[in-house]
Write a structure and sequence with these properties.
This protein is an alpha+beta fold and 161 residues long. The protein contains 3 helices and 10 strands, in the order βαβββαββββββα.
């Protein structure tokens, strides 16, 4: 692509690859699950749980029984497994990823996804058009201990773009 920097050494192009809106897809999955009878609870922290043919969950909002449970706890997924008494098969190590979103004028310079060559630590900074006509640059890969710190740091983002 002619708009890319001369400093780029290597990149990958995956034919047929597409970008989806990362917020709308999970919302659509949740909406469909609720339409099919699933129950969605907000602000219901899992305290403990057990399985004896049915899941029995103790939450901060009361007791829940279910045939199936989906762990969508993200950065807290390993803690949810611990609360359920499951063997510790993984440990979450938080890593923050920040993005820069360019306005729609940038779209003409990035007609398709540009993937860097990944390393052991990161898949690298991706440059891609979005379904909304913007350009997305990111994510960073910042190791951190705090699972809930989602601050945006201007200095970091200025180094990304």
């Amino acid at each position: 692509m002619p708009s890319l920097s001369d400093r780029i050494v290597a990149a990958l192009e995956v034919e047929g690859e597409h970008v989806i809106d990362p917020w709308s897809a999970p919302l659509a999955y949740l909406t469909q699950a609720v339409a099919l009878g699933a129950k969605f609870l907000r602000n219901a922290e899992l305290l403990k749980g057990s399985f004896d043919g049915r899941w029995r969950l103790e939450t901060s909002s009361g007791r829940i029984e279910a045939r199936a449970v989906i762990n969508t706890a993200g950065l807290y997924g390993d803690i949810v497994d611990q609360c359920l008494g499951l063997d510790a098969q993984f440990q979450i190590k938080p890593r923050k990823g920040q993005f820069v979103v360019l306005d729609k004028a940038g779209f003409r310079h990035v007609p398709r996804i540009v993937l860097p060559v990944p390393s052991e630590m990161t898949k690298g900074i991706v440059v891609c058009p979005t379904v909304f006509g913007n350009v997305l640059i990111g994510p960073t890969a910042e190791e951190q201990e705090d699972r809930s710190r989602a601050t945006v740091e201007t200095e970091t983002l200025q180094g990304t773009a």
